[in-house]
From TrEMBL:
Gene name per UniProt: dgoD
The name this protein goes by in its record: Galactonate dehydratase
Keyword terms: Lyase, Magnesium, Metal-binding
Coiled-coil region(s): none
Organismal lineage: Bacteria, Bacillati, Actinomycetota, Actinomycetes, Kitasatosporales
InterPro entries for the chain: DgoD-like (IPR034593), Enolase-like_C_sf (IPR036849), Enolase-like_N (IPR029017), Enolase_C-like (IPR029065), Galactonate_deHydtase (IPR023592), Mandel_Rmase/mucon_lact_enz_CS (IPR018110), Mandelate_racemase_C (IPR013342), Mandelate_racemase_N_dom (IPR013341)
KW Magnesium (keyword) present: yes
Pfam families the record matches: MR_MLE_C, MR_MLE_N
GO molecular function, a single term: galactonate dehydratase activity
């Protein structure tokens, strides 16, 4: 079997799909994208396509090595995301070829259901209350929300209080049996993070995510020691090597993105690296159905998996939704906030190819907002 054809599709709201077809007619799907930087990733996939055409799709590891390390200059979000999507598609092909789910090829299932969390928006405490109540009614046992809006580098007492109040409101509404993650999105300076974390401990979030940007890794050990709240990060790290420092720092929850950090192949290794550190995996995934399906395949076979992000209903999805691109929504049907294991081959979903081709004709040019502080200077989004 040989790889015969590779196509990419830009799909609203802000995603990209890759379709890899073999000369025997087996088709695999992947999702190579960096949100807001889809076009350069598409170009990177085109460059890698030169190498892949005519190759045996079953040699996933060898292709991963060549795509990742075969060039003198390597790494970074664009190349790594291109490799990630192609890696997902090759695993999809392999699973379909053998007629088994990818998790069977990775050692078999270790669990029957995947706990997922839902996103809530709403910046005002009363809006948070309504959004939380809606997700509880939808059956979710965990939610994630932004921990704050834009925050000045040395925050006022009011800004700090507002962030603490938001967490307290979430705990009040959820009670003690449900969980919430607080995502600070790298918006908080190291000084603010040191002040905030101890004040959030009483509300006991499941984790605090990106309390600082991952580029401030040198201060993460201080933050781990500043409060008992588990620290989570990793959506902006791109290889297993980049996860060594956070593991050594005591980060409790790794959040690699299966479309950024090297695909199924590399996330599996990141999970294995985390296991002897006692760290859990909670993969980042605000993306589409292929990235979520690939994440689920990994979760079914990963012992130290904690919880899965997913984008259904997320505030970023304007104009299209995850379920718009699958022929059968069943693999993404939640029961009590969980997704159940199926025996469907490959990544376990059927992509609606006609919908993907139609979406590509519309395309998108999604960019993240550029935020500014009150004085006009750039703020982290
Ligand atoms: Mg995040």
């Amino acid at each position: 079997m040989k790889i015969a054809r590779i196509e990419t599709f830009l799909a609203p709201p802000r995603w990209m799909f890759v379709r890899v077809e073999t000369d025997e007619g087996v088709v695999g799907w992947g999702e190579p994208v960096v949100e807001g930087r889809a076009e350069p990733v598409r170009a990177a996939v085109e460059v890698l396509t030169e190498y892949l055409i005519g190759q045996d799709p079953m040699r996933i590891e060898d292709h991963w090595q060549v795509m990742t390390k075969g060039g003198f200059y390597r790494g970074g979000p664009v190349l790594s995301s291109a490799v990630s999507g192609l890696d997902q598609a090759l695993w999809d092909i392999k699973g379909k070829h053998y007629g088994v789910p990818v998790y069977q090829l990775l050692g078999g299932p270790v669990r029957e259901r995947i706990r997922a969390y839902a996103w809530i928006g709403g910046d005002e405490p009363e809006e948070i209350r309504d959004a939380l109540t809606a997700q509880i009614e939808a059956g979710f046992t965990a939610v994630k929300m932004n921990g704050c809006g834009r925050m000045t580098p040395v925050a006022t007492r009011a800004e700090i209080r507002a962030a603490v109040r938001r967490a307290e409101t979430a705990r009040e509404v959820l009670g003690d049996d449900r969980d919430f993650g607080l995502d600070f999105h790298g918006r908080v300076s190291p000084a603010n993070a040191r002040r905030l974390l101890p004040l959030l401990a009483e509300a006991a979030p499941l984790f605090v995510e990106e309390p600082v940007l991952s580029e401030h890794m040198d201060i993460v050990p201080d933050l781990v020691n500043a409060s008992p709240i588990p620290i989570a990060l990793g959506e902006r790290l791109y290889s297993r090597r980049e996860f060594i420092a956070p593991l050594r720092a005591g980060v409790a929850i790794l959040q690699p993105d299966i479309s950024h950090a090297g695909g199924i192949s590399e996330l599996r290794r990141i999970a294995a690296l985390a296991e002897p550190h006692g760290a859990q995996l909670a993969p980042h995934c605000p993306l589409g159905p292929v990235a979520l399906a690939a994440s689920l395949q990994l979760a079914f076979t990963t012992p130290n998996f904690l919880i899965q992000e997913q984008s259904i209903g997320i505030h970023y999805n304007q104009g299209a939704e995850l379920l718009d691109y699958v022929a059968d929504p069943e693999p993404f049907r939640f029961t009590a906030g969980q997704l159940s294991r199926t025996d469907r081959p490959g990544l376990g979903i059927e992509v609606d190819e006609a919908a993907v081709r139609t979406a590509d004709r519309r395309g998108h040019a999604w960019r993240n907002p550029v935020w500014r502080h009150a004085d006009g200077s750039l703020a982290e989004w």
